[in-house]
């Protein structure tokens, strides 16, 4: 069993790869960031914009004789604030370049035009889902989250699927969308190690968050379908360990992925049974699927519900009716 990481002390996980555990103010708990000693000293993710995370990051680097000033490049697995919030602070001190998927850019840059589009997208989505008007505040809560735990920064280099990571010649980029549209994992074939961000986590199943489409005139991405496809891609790979964004490494990735996919279908079956009692909106289904969680974590739970509706739609196992802009589902 891998020993627990002590806060503020970096732990070697693989040759030239060190894990640093940083605290977060979120329910997910601490986040893992990784230092990779390649041709350039590379930090994978940076943690949220809090003083506690900053102190843990600097202490962790110091424990292996390193400092923020020595970081030469930063790779982001995805754009969520628990992974990218300290980006600009690290850049300002180190001068490091940022590498990430291009779809992370509008979130990292806090692009105002994109954020307006983001708000319109979710206003329409939640109305269609039957979310009550008094709960629409969750859209603004997202903005508050971004402004509190991250700050405007930039991406210098865009990464794409199967390319070699610049200045990390042993590492290959894997595009693993689903949890976010910008999600990347890194794979090193020589020792079969994957730095997996939030794609594969041992103790929790990553949520496939609904996000706006990359082409603003197109339909939204089917995030749960994407997530399942990316998991299946990884199941076919020869991976010794997945170094995750949260918690301990995954040493049995195929078994874990199979269990997640199976549980995924079980929830889809549950949703279909709920629809057997009569037509319902996505919001009503969310309340039934997650009765103790949906009010507290509505964006997360409604994303999950819509993902399973997407699966049923692909299988032609659900009918949809629109009334006054609200979608009602039935079987």
Number of E-type strands: 14
Tally of separate helices: 10
CATH class category name of the largest domain: Alpha Beta
Task: Output the CATH homologous superfamily of the largest domain.
Answer: Ribonuclease Z/Hydroxyacylglutathione hydrolase-like
Keywords: Hydrolase
Protein name: Hydrolase glyoxylase
Function: Counteracts the endogenous Pycsar antiviral defense system. Phosphodiesterase that enables metal-dependent hydrolysis of host cyclic nucleotide Pycsar defense signals such as cCMP and cUMP.
Pfam family, one: Lactamase_B
How would you describe the overall organization of this protein?
There is one protein chain. With 331 residues, the chain is α/β, with parallel strands linked by helices. It folds into two domains: 11-110 and 150-251, Ribonuclease Z/Hydroxyacylglutathione hydrolase-like (Metallo-beta-lactamase, Chain A, 4-Layer Sandwich), CATH 3.60.15; 112-145 and 261-330, Orthogonal Bundle (Arc Repressor Mutant, subunit A), CATH 1.10.10. Helices cover 36% and strands 19% of the residues. It contains ten helices and 14 strands. The protein has helices at 51-62, 81-84, 87-94, 105-108, 112-128, 137-149, 223-235, 253-275, 282-289, 298-314; strands spanning 11-14, 17-22, 31-37, 41-44, 73-75, 97-100, 157-158, 164-165, 168-175, 184-188, 193-197, 241-244, 319-323, 326-330. The strands form three sheets. It has a seven-stranded mixed beta sheet with strand order 1-2-3-4-5-6-7, covered by helices on one side. The protein has a five-stranded mixed beta sheet with strand order 8-9-10-11-12, with no helix packed on it. Helix 7 (223-235) packs antiparallel against helix 8 (253-275). The radius of gyration is 20 Å and the shape is globular. Residues 30-246 form the Metallo-beta-lactamase domain. Counteracts the endogenous Pycsar antiviral defense system. Phosphodiesterase that enables metal-dependent hydrolysis of host cyclic nucleotide Pycsar defense signals such as cCMP and cUMP. InterPro entries: Metallo-B-lactamas, RibonucZ/Hydroxyglut_hydro, Sec-metab_biosynth-thioest. This is Hydrolase glyoxylase. Keywords: Hydrolase.
């Amino acid at each position: 069993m891998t020993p627990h990481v002590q806060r503020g002390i970096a732990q070697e996980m693989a040759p030239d790869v060190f894990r640093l555990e940083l605290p977060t103010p979120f329910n997910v708990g601490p986040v893992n960031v990784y230092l990779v000693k390649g041709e350039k000293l590379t930090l994978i993710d940076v943690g949220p914009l809090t003083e506690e995370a900053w102190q843990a990051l600097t202490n962790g680097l110091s424990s292996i004789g390193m400092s923020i000033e020595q970081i030469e490049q930063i790779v982001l697995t995805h754009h969520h604030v628990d992974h990218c919030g300290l980006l600009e602070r690290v850049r300002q001190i180190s001068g490091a370049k940022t590498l990430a998927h291009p779809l992370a850019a509008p979130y990292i840059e806090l692009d105002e035009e994109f954020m307006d589009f983001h708000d319109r997208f979710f206003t329409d989505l939640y109305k269609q889902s039957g979310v009550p008007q008094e709960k629409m505040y969750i859209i603004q809560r997202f903005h508050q989250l971004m402004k509190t735990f991250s700050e405007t920064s930039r991406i210098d280099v865009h990464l794409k699927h199967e390319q070699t990571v610049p200045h990390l010649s042993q590492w290959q980029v894997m595009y693993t969308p689903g949890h976010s549209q910008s999600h990347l994992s890194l794979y090193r074939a020589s020792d079969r190690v994957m730095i997996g961000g939030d794609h594969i986590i041992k103790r929790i199943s990553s949520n496939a968050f609904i996000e706006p489409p990359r082409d603003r005139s197109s339909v939204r991405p089917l995030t749960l379908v994407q997530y399942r496809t990316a998991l299946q891609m990884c199941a076919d790979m020869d991976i010794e360990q997945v170094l995750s964004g949260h918690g301990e490494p995954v040493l049995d990735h195929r078994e874990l992925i199979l269990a997640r996919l199976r549980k995924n279908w079980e929830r889809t079956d549950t949703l279909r049974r709920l629809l057997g009692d009569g037509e319902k909106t996505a919001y009503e289904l969310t309340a039934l699927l997650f009765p103790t969680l949906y009010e507290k974590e509505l964006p997360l739970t409604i994303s999950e519900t819509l993902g399973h509706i997407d699966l049923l739609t692909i299988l032609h196992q659900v009918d949809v009716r629109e009334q006054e802009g609200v979608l009602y589902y039935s079987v």
